[in-house]
Design a protein that fits this description.
Layout lengths: L5 H20 L2 H21 L4 H18 L1
Helix pairs in contact: 1-2, 2-3
Length: about 70
Amino acid sequence: MLHHHKANRSALKTEIKKYDAALASGDMAAAQAAYKDAVKKIDTAVSKGYVHKNTAARRKSQMTKKLNAAE
């Protein structure tokens, strides 16, 4: 990855961490909102070339499984 993508990848990781924190807190409404934001950020990262599409698909799949298991 190029160095000028670092801030964008960092923001992506932050969104994923917010989702994980919301899920851990047990607040499903917050977790679902954070899930939507994180998926949107992941999709944007793919379209701009910050992450590979398969990496994004794997992360979204893992997040979806966690969300479904928590419900």
